[in-house]
Specification:
The protein folds into 2 domains: about 100 residues, Alpha-Beta Plaits (2-Layer Sandwich); about 140 residues, Pseudouridine synthase I, catalytic domain, C-terminal subdomain (Alpha-Beta Plaits), CATH 3.30.70.660. Helices cover about 25% and strands about 30% of the residues. Strands 1, 2, 3, 4, 5, 6, 7, 8, 9 and 10 form a 10-stranded mixed beta sheet that branches. α1 crosses α3. The longest helix is centred in the middle third of the chain and has 14 residues. The protein is elongated.
């Protein structure tokens, strides 16, 4: 039996799901997609994913993959571009609000996780004194003064290869705690401030703890020198808080030599 690899591109509002992974009795992105694919294909298919997001974390450009037996493709008429456009329409009809499938089709040899070159995340912060009823579900409300120069200096320290033990929960399945950030910088527009980070792999809660620690730097709770010490393998208790999940977006998954 020959298997054909399929790629599926999607985005979702993490506030509507209890994370990516299927969990009994809880809404998840994986379960929603698998259930929709079962209805369309008539079989269960295993999903691989570029990045397993936690509960409440959003995805602007998530990528998954699944194998389909070629006889199922023939039986279901999935043999041309028009059929795949119908498949895209069906999946969007069968998945719940808050999840959109933006592309689906055969991609020979594709593995959504193994083929990743890098992953980019953005963490958004709302800077106005008053909470916004429009962006509150997608940003951390941090009013008050922040030292942007100190926060920027701290982000520069994080670029490169470091021991990020302080930035993941103490109880962890990770064995290797060293990660290499190829980008870590702040950007802003009006009342919105966001952190951009990029690496090949991240640890659980890593981006959110980086964001929480950098906000501590901005508030003067800890210094830039403190951050340098954290990157030498300090304990989780030495770093700042884990920022709320709803401010974090999986922004893009990079394949091949893509770098923009």
């Amino acid at each position: 039996m020959a298997l054909v690899a399929y790629r599926i591109d999607l985005q979702y509002d993490g506030g509507r799901f209890n994370g990516w992974a299927r969990q009994p009795g809880l809404p998840s992105v994986e379960a929603s997609l698998q259930d929709a694919l079962r209805t369309v294909l008539g079989i269960d298919v295993p999903l691989t994913v570029a990045g397993r997001t936690d509960a409440g974390v959003h995805a602007r450009r998530q990528v998954a993959g699944f194998p389909v037996p070629d006889e199922v493709l023939q039986e279901r008429g999935l043999i041309d571009g028009e059929a795949h456009r119908r498949l895209l329409f069906s999946l969007n009809q069968l998945t719940p609000p808050g999840l959109a499938v933006t592309g689906v089709g055969p991609s020979p040899g594709f593995d959504a996780r193994r083929d990743v070159h890098a992953r980019s995340y953005r963490y958004f912060i709302w800077r106005e004194q008053v909470r916004s009823p429009f962006v509150g579900a997608y940003s951390w409300h941090v009013p008050g003064a922040l030292d942007h120069a100190a926060m920027t200096a701290a982000t520069r320290l994080m670029v490169g290869s470091h021991d990020f033990t302080a930035f993941t929960p103490t109880e962890t399945q990770h064995v290797v705690m060293r990660r290499t950030l190829t980008r870590c910088r702040w950007r802003s527009r009006g009342p919105v401030l966001w952190l951009e980070v990029r690496a090949h792999t991240f640890m659980r809660h890593m981006v959110r703890t980086i964001a929480g620690t950098l906000v501590d730097v901005g508030r003067g709770i800890r210094s830039v020198d403190d951050v340098a010490l954290l990157l030498e393998g300090a304990a989780r208790s030495d770093a700042g808080p884990t920022a709320p999940a709803h401010g974090l977006f999986l922004w893009r998954v990079h394949y091949g030599a893509q770098s923009p």
